[in-house]
Amino acid sequence: MGFIVAVLEAGGIKRGRLIPGDAGAFYNCEFKVLSYLPERGEVVESEIVELIDFGAFIRVSNLDALCHVSQMADDFFSYESGQDVLIGKKSGLALRVGDIVRGKIVVVGLQRNAIRVGITMRQPGLGKLEWIDQWKEEQEALREAA
User: In a 10 Å sphere around its CB, with 0-12 CB exposed, 13-18 middle and 19+ buried, how is residue 137 labelled?
Assistant: First the structure.
């Protein structure tokens, strides 16, 4: 079913029960929810919420997906902790928290209490939005030159 994003309707609430040692009260009910389950091959556009030495976490709906440094671009990215930035060694491309990126979901791992998602940004048309705009301009210039 995926992650519940919102409860749309709830009704038919039956008698509840208490479980000793648990602070909650539990009720059987009928409900409609909006849920999201990421799919392999899905292209998402979202914000970088955290940087670490081996990649970036990107918010996808209500979960954080990992883009490993090897999947960011055709370059070697290293983490500069003092500046909280990932920088490409050859290109000088930089990623920071708050940047909007476009990525493609390549791994969805379903576990009992979690969903792990992996993203790539190595293909044309993927990556930080500014990189994509620059790539489009380069492609247009090549078409005009031909």
Answer: exposed
Share of residues in the chain with pLDDT > 90 (%): 52
**Contact call for residues 95 and 103 (beta carbons, < 8 A):** no
Does residue 144 sit within a domain?
A: no
Q: Identify whether 122 is part of a domain.
A: yes
Q: For the full predicted model, state whether its pTM sits above 0.70.
A: yes
Sequential DSSP letters for 33-74: EEEE---TT-EEEEEEEEEETTEEEEEETTEEEEEEGGGSSS
- Is residue 108 within 8 A of residue 115, CB to CB? The reply is yes
Task: Say which residue the tokens 């994003």 belong to.
Answer: 5
In the predicted structure, residue 2 carries a pLDDT above the cut 80: no
- 133: domain CATH number is 2.40.50.140
Helices (H) and strands (E) in the chain, counts: 1, 13
